[in-house]
């Protein structure tokens, strides 16, 4: 469990710091070119979109416990994200809280200034999926040894 959680935490830290730095630079230029975007809104965008990125990291670590070939792990992670997006598009009337809808809800949040309830639901589902993927990774790695 220590190995998986340490690996997840290190990848999460790298991804979130990189994403935050990029978003800070983008926020600065948005404020210069298009007008005021509050810092609070930026923090909400960082939080909710960061959850999506953590889900992708969790998927990657889960596939890495199943397969040792880096190319296969990358392929399966990307394929899963694409299939999740396709499933969300096809069944959008049913999958209101799909993690793949987070970016759409973030756009709504920026335009309206309010956090949509569907964004909160999608965030909760995303956190549950992250936890389940980490637990599944730990059990898979234990079985392999």
Explain what you see.
With 145 residues, this protein is mostly helical. The protein contains 5 helices and no strands. The two termini are 13 Å apart.
Task: List descriptors.
145 residues, mainly alpha
What kind of assembly state do the chains in view correspond to?
A: single chain
Unreliable spans are none
Head-to-tail CA distance between termini? 13 Å
Percent of sequence in beta strands? under 5%
* Average pLDDT: 92
In short:
The protein has helices at residues 2-33, 39-66, 70-90, 102-112, 117-144.
Sequence-ordered SSE layout with sheet pairings:
Elements: H1 2-33, H2 39-66, H3 70-90, H4 102-112, H5 117-144
Helix pairs in contact: 1-2, 2-3, 2-4, 2-5
């Amino acid at each position: 469990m220590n190995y998986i959680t340490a690996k997840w935490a290190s990848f999460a830290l790298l991804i979130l710091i990189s994403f935050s730095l990029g978003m800070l630079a983008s926020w600065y230029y948005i404020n210069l070119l298009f007008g005021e975007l509050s810092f609070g809104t930026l923090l909400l965008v960082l939080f909710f979109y960061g959850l999506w990125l953590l889900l992708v990291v969790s998927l990657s670590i889960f596939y890495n416990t199943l397969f040792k070939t880096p190319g296969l792990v990358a392929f399966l992670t990307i394929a899963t994200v694409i299939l999740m997006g396709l499933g969300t598009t096809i069944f959008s009337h049913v999958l209101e809280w799909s993690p793949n809808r987070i970016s759409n809800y973030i756009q709504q949040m920026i335009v309206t200034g309010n956090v949509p309830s569907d964004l909160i639901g999608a965030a909760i589902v995303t956190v549950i999926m992250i936890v389940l993927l980490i637990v599944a990774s730990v059990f898979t790695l234990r079985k392999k040894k």
